[in-house]
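Q: How would the structure tokens look for this protein?
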Amino acid sequence: MELQDLIEVLCGADAGVRLRELDGEGELTRLLPELEAGRGFAQPALHAFDVLGHSLAAVEAVDAVLGEGEAGVAFRAAIDWVDFGGWLARSVGGVPVAALVRLGALLHDVAKPPTATMLEGRLRFPRHGPVGAEMMAVRLPAMGLDGEAAAFVTRLVRYHLRPAELVRNGPASDRAFRRFARDLDGEVLALMVVNLADGWATQGPRYTREHFGRHCAFVNYVLARAWAATAGDEPAPLVGGDDLMAELGLPGGRLLGAVLTSVRRAQLEGHVRTREEALALAREVSRQPGFWQDSRPGEA
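A: Here is the predicted structure in token form.
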């Protein structure tokens, strides 16, 4: 199998299944030998699979999120303000975005085995994102992947834990979200698909519709915060996440992201024109119980 064969597999709606078949034939790790170390490499109890099994399950989760089944429909509904179809139709370095996102999901934990260490009696994988990115920055061009496409994938590997880090110590500032989007070269949606797939594959059969619904809401929150913090060509947002937390006392999380989404949409449609109007709308929608929740999360 060569690079083009792998790309064709990754473009398919059943890429995860096909990758398992290729792995059974020995072709997958022949092309990407770094994956072999993950076979049988056990992870902490939170994880349902070994490292390689987790990586393959992450690709299957991407298939579900990008597909037309219940999970795909629910994911699109959760971020219905995003031009998802337009994003999915893009190519980077001549490779469809969907294939590159699946490749990022496959490789996101490639450095777990070489970084594994015991810290305070617990297995940890310090800096496995950056280390994995460094590994793939060599491997992917050597396979023949275009420089722009290779950079896209290595960013997904490097920063796949960044969303959780943004909210670990409370709501992040708009400045932090601008830096986040800049580090990703604007490819926030791609990273959030990998982030969702990573969470799904971690739980495996224990992953529920409730998990999926909450994760979709988190994706929407991060996208909305990044969008509000980096809008350039469009009119500057009347309010940002910092404003809503300070002026309205909103906590960070799904509610803040949903309120930002509603206010920004109203601004672009001309329904609010001043900061005061934007804050008034934010206050109004934040008081509507359940308006921001996805009541019908997809199959997970």
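The CA atoms of residues 221 and 257 lie 4 Å apart.

The chain has a mean pLDDT of 90.

Upvote if useful.
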